[in-house]
Amino acid sequence: MKTLHQINCEIFDIVKNNELILFTELPKMVGVDQDLVLQSIGKLKNDHGLISVKSHKLSLSEKGLSQKSFESYLESLKPKKEYWFTKYQMTYLPFFIFFGFFGIYKHFDNKELKSDYETLKSDFEILTKKYDSVIKQTEELPKQILNDSSRTKNLTDLNKDKKSGNE
Fold this sequence. Notes:
There is one protein chain. This protein is mostly helical. It folds into two domains: 4-77, Arc Repressor Mutant, subunit A (Orthogonal Bundle); 87-166. It is built from seven helices and three strands; from the N terminus they run αβααββαααα. The chain has helices at 4-17, 26-30, 34-47, 62-65, 70-77, 87-107, 110-166, and strands at residues 21-22, 51-54, 57-60. It has a three-stranded antiparallel beta sheet. It is rod-shaped and about 145 Å long.
């Protein structure tokens, strides 16, 4: 049992080889029922516009004459896949990317980075000096507290001695 696609292909080839063919001869040439031939002719004429029918005689239309076969016509209807890059661009794309990184590295603004680094370094040195001085002050505070407390004891002792001496 032939499919409608196969019948379409055979009828197109028969009509292409024979310039004019009678409709009644097709079922015998293709070897299928007349109903399938009618369906096939309807598709070729109405849907695709490849065949013209005049008084039971079939011939190719202008559109049909430009096609090699029914298969090539169907392939021409399929949308072709579009690529973002051409074959040439795809082969050279890795090189462009690779050498582009060298260009970025070469033209990167080092002056600004150096100045930022210098300012950060000087700020860091100032902060470390301040930190060291704060640590020294915190170490000296307990000693000062002890000295102050001993002075206050000495002063209180002196004040007691003065009071006792006055009496």
